[in-house]
Amino acid sequence: LKKILSSNVGITPPTFSSVSPTNVNTGDGTGNATFTITGTGFDATATAKLKTTAGVDVNFDSVTRDSATQITGVIAISSLSNANEPYDVVIINGTGLQVTATDQININAQPVYVTASGSLGEQLANTAGSFSVNATDPESAGNVTFELQSGSLPPGYSITNTAADGGTAIISGTDSTTSTATTFNFVLRAIDAASNTTSRAFSIRSSVPVTESFTSS
């Protein structure tokens, strides 16, 4: 029998040229990431997928074969993990022939809170108070900073960012306007060097001295 090369009968594997983007910021963990994969020889039923550094397949939520040289894949950002990077790109033709481009996509993960959500504590009004919230960047690409996303701090309180342990928000001040015990609820947004964000809800209770009057001994 004479050996016949697949190239002689028009059955050839696809080739990979590039993928864009090569880095995905996870942001707040919502939304989709859209990848444009280019190469050659994508047949009419060509598809694509990702593969983790451990060799586990990760399918796109949708794959569109735009042309013989381009495929578009869309996947939920929540399906991508910094722990599984770098991801390979796999292109498969309808014939079953495929090509794998290794270590193509990196994930820039969002900040991770160390401080649990909920109450940070209680402070007597008209007395200086200080509370702290900490978060870290899984990739240590830079310091995490904080901003007030919603809600309100006790009157007279403000946020100071420090570089301690990745990033710490010092929430401090003197509440001089509270006349009754009040719980202040607010949401902090942590931001890393790549503009990834994570939000978490906290509260601070401002208390006031309790007095009682007596008309007899």
Compact summary:
With 217 residues, this protein is mainly beta. The protein is 0% helix and 53% strand.
Could you describe the 3D structure shown?
By secondary structure, the protein is mostly beta strands. The chain has no helices and 17 strands. The protein has strands at 15-20, 23-25, 32-40, 47-51, 57-59, 62-67, 70-76, 87-92, 98-108, 112-113, 118-124, 128-136, 145-151, 157-162, 168-174, 182-191, 197-207. A hairpin with a 5-residue loop joins strand 8 (87-92) and strand 9.
- How many E-type strands? 17
Distance between the termini: 118 Å
Rg over alpha carbons: 27 Å
Low-confidence stretches: none
Gross geometry: rod-shaped
Biggest sheet, spatial arrangement of strands: 2-9-8-4-5
Main sheet characteristics: 5 strands, mixed
Beta-strand proportion: over 45%
User: How many individual helices?
Assistant: 0
**Percent range of helical residues:** under 10%
Order of helices and strands: EEEEEEEEEEEEEEEEE
Q: Strand pairing plus helix content: what structural class?
A: mainly beta
Q: What's the pLDDT, averaged over the residues?
A: 90
Secondary structure layout:
Elements: E1 15-20, E2 23-25, E3 32-40, E4 47-51, E5 57-59, E6 62-67, E7 70-76, E8 87-92, E9 98-108, E10 112-113, E11 118-124, E12 128-136, E13 145-151, E14 157-162, E15 168-174, E16 182-191, E17 197-207
Parallel strand pairs: 2-9, 11-17
Antiparallel strand pairs: 1-3, 3-7, 4-5, 4-8, 6-7, 8-9, 10-12, 12-15, 13-16, 14-15, 16-17
